[in-house]
Amino acid sequence: MQSCSLYSSPPLGEAKFPLKRVLSLPTEKNAHGIAIGETWMAFYTEDSIIAMNLDMREKLWTTKMKVQDYGDSFRMIKNKLIAVSEDQILLIDKDGYRKEISLDLIEAPVSIIKTQDPNNIIKVMSIYTDYLYVVRGSSWILEAYNISENTMMWKLPVGRGIGNVLYDSSSDVVYLITDDSIRAFENLSGRLLWEMKGTFGKSAFDSGILYVREASKDQDTYKMVAIDAHSQKELWIKNINIPQNDGVYDLAVINNLLILSGDMGLIAIDKFSGTQTWDLDNKATYGEEFVTSPVEFDNIIYARAIPSGTLYAISISDGKIIGYVRIDDTDFLGGMGYDSPQTLKNGILFNTKNAVVIYEAN
Fold this sequence. Notes:
The protein is mainly beta. It is about 0% helix and about 50% strand.
């Protein structure tokens, strides 16, 4: 993932960072991912999950589990942790009580069973308040589960071209984006509502609008499209000057902006008009790349970069760097995690090489 451009890390320490460090919780091992509850948090290492009380700032419990690093596999929903390994999905509460989600038994030919477990979890596509969407088995089958009822609603072969699964609670419709189509399904039954053919990539959903990257004939541009999910009408199309061999790893809607994260840095687009608002070129951040979603706190964007692991504070209005914090003298390629920062009531939380760090407003 590292760019071919000349790279040099920013200095260690903090420079004009708008928040104040209030706590550093040692993790002993690298924290790969973090989930935040109402009064507690959890993070996972290469072989365990550790829960911490945010009010008392002390450890609650530890459980052995190898959480998947791939996909949406570690989330807090209704103050309960959802953790996913290759073969199970667990619901864990603050007290450490575990409940397993019952996965449907996938049948497969004997030849497949001998070489690969057909019931393995390939990737958790997305988790919402009541629903979970997961790809399983050697045939890449998408399964939709009702979390509260612990039942599978429907399943669908999708193949390796699956991109995103996006759920709209207001209409109870789920959108499946693959590399050759966008399909809308009735969430409870899996009934197909409509389909749009095309060559699609990264996507996001907000207030009834699908934001999708579509293939462009020009190799030096990306094409972003806003689609009304109800009428399937294109609201705007924007060509962005990014070579298509530069990865765009994530899309995020923050306030009125659609933010693209990737090799090129960050690009902000007005979600209503498609007009490019600002461009945080990676030259401004020592040639770094952004592979996870940024977050917003107090009208400032916080974005994590690789390879240095630096957390940048960025003006939401013009994309200018306000400050940064870099704690570890090690880079991503040296084994440091690169999870997105998480927002708290009065600040943010993120992981370093060997600690979970909390910064709060002054």
